[in-house]
Specification:
Structural class: alpha/beta
Radius of gyration: 24 Å
CATH topology of the largest domain: Spore Coat Polysaccharide Biosynthesis Protein SpsA, Chain A
Largest sheet: 11 strands, mixed
CATH class of the largest domain: Alpha Beta
Number of domains: 3
Distance between the termini: 39 Å
CATH architecture of the largest domain: Alpha-Beta Complex
Strand content: 25-35%
Shape: globular
């Protein structure tokens, strides 16, 4: 039995402002219109005889993850979500997922460990590489996928190889060293993808990182489990137990230490899309080497990547830059310096600027909201409620709200009133009124919410009833 595990974590700070703590890198869309996460899920689901997929991600990303998977018709697949209350890096994530799978499917289950933020262009060769890895994993080897270098990339780790054997793992080198690695032919990029029997990994962890294994195993065993529906099972890992796991990568904890490690050379068109430069390379471009996404206009410019989510962005007389415009932030960077966007992200974080963490769009189990405008004493949101979605029965202590439906039909509780609002109809909710909205239709329902009050934070909410268990 093969069980893919999709690890969906990491902020992706080099891809700010599109990637942030509340909207991390796996949710970024690529040229085919799907997110990196959904592309990874589709690759895993398309392998032969896959009946279960495990995704381990942050607790706050669960709603968006489920929404992404709903785009794919996977009625034959049971999804298992392991939700991390705090980040503990890939060793703990691996230990938790492996413990979960060993208990659910047995120690002989073969785990295909995939990162949610990679691009793979050659899916046929990916399937061939997986088949090779599964065969070796069946012989109790721990298998890693090495990528034939396409150039002296300084943003990737490397593996020195001798045939199928890994000699050593090497952190991101400088350019001169990376060029030497490429010229020698004895080094591969470290993809961060692995394949192993559940029992083989547990045995290796028991030997090399027992504290991580014990803490992660307890986090799974003591976690809060619930069946969302027939094909979706969630386990919220126990925070107290998970916090005991040292924060370390799977490379340091296991891969650099085990003796039964095998390397599959995988020529699969792989990229970890770590920077705006690498992301722009994944898109097609015009005759001048420009890639333009959204409402853009470029004049006398070459080798530029320009992306906007709404307003028009114009570029004149520029070369080799990336311009990324979101609803609340704009980045302009020399593509050769795109690794340094991480420094900008760190500065925003140290300065306490909310743009390093928050994102204009937030995701909830009933749908999503997007902040359109805000200022002293007011905030304007577009709220989208999916079919069957229902907000909690709630009240606010510091704000009033005005709801205007623009699409669909909203069934609304407002104090003692029960209303059915069509498009272009509205209701005013006084501060303190108990209220709720529901979409009973078959299409998404959209409304505009105008908040006014002395405090407009998302935590100003008292829930009385909630179909998603949040009250």
């Amino acid at each position: 039995m093969i069980v893919p595990v999709i690890v969906s974590g990491g902020v992706g700070s080099r891809l700010w402002p599109a990637s942030r703590q509340s909207h991390p890198k796996p949710f970024l869309s690529v040229e085919n219109g799907k997110s990196l996460l959904l592309n990874t899920y589709v690759r895993a689901a398309s392998l032969d005889d896959i009946s279960d997929i495990v995704t381990i991600t942050a607790l706050e990303s669960s709603f968006k993850t489920i929404a992404e998977y709903e785009f794919y018709d996977s009625a034959h697949i049971t999804n298992h979500l392991l939700l991390e209350p705090i980040p503990r890096d890939t060793a703990a994530a691996t230990a938790a997922a492996t413990s979960y799978i060993a208990k659910a499917f047995g120690p002989d289950a073969i785990i295909l460990f995939l990162a949610a933020d990679h691009m793979i262009r050659d899916t046929d060769e990916f399937r061939n590489s997986v088949a090779t890895a599964v065969e070796r994993a069946g012989k109790d080897r721990i298998v890693t996928f090495g990528i034939q270098p396409g150039g002296p990339e300084t943003g990737y780790g490397y593996i020195e190889v001798d045939g199928e054997r890994a000699v050593q793992f090497i952190e991101k080198p400088d350019r001169e060293t990376a060029q030497h690695y490429c010229d020698s032919g004895d080094y591969l990029w470290n993809s961060g993808m692995f394949c192993f029997k559940a029992g083989a990994m547990l045995e290796a962890m028991e030997k090399h990182c027992p504290q991580i294994l014990e803490a992660s195993r307890k986090a799974v065993e003591n976690g809060n489990r619930r069946a969302v529906d027939r094909l979706l099972l969630e386990t919220e890992l126990d925070e107290q137990a998970f916090a005991e796991a040292p924060k370390i990568s799977i490379d340091y904890a296991i891969m650099e230490k085990v003796e039964n490690l095998s390397v599959v050379r995988a020529d699969i068109g792989w990229s970890d899309v770590g920077t705006w430069s690498s992301l722009s390379d994944s898109y097609s471009s015009d005759a001048d080497g420009n890639t333009a996404i959204g409402d853009t206009a470029l004049v006398n410019s070459k080798n530029c990547f320009v992306s906007t989510e709404g307003r028009l962005v114009g570029v004149v007389g520029m070369q080799n830059i990336a311009v990324v415009d979101t609803r609340d932030a704009t980045l302009i960077v020399d593509k050769d310096k795109s690794q340094d966007v991480k420094k900008l992200f760190e500065k925003l974080s140290s300065d306490g600027h909310e743009a390093h963490a928050s994102f204009p769009t937030g995701y909830r189990p009933w749908g999503s909201y997007t902040i359109l405008d805000e200022g002293t004493g007011y905030k304007v949101k577009r709220i989208e409620v999916k079919p069957g979605g229902c907000l909690s029965l709630q009240s606010h202590k510091h704000r009033s709200e005005h709801w205007t439906v623009v699409q669909g039909v909203a069934h609304v509780v407002n104090g003692d009133d029960q209303l059915v609002l069509q498009a272009n109809e509205s209701t005013y909710i006084e501060c303190g009124n108990v209220h709720r909205m529901e979409n009973r239709g078959q299409e998404p329902m959209t409304l505009i919410e105008v908040q006014t009050g002395s405090y407009l934070g998302e935590d100003d909410i008292v829930r009385y009833e909630d179909i998603y268990g949040r009250s």
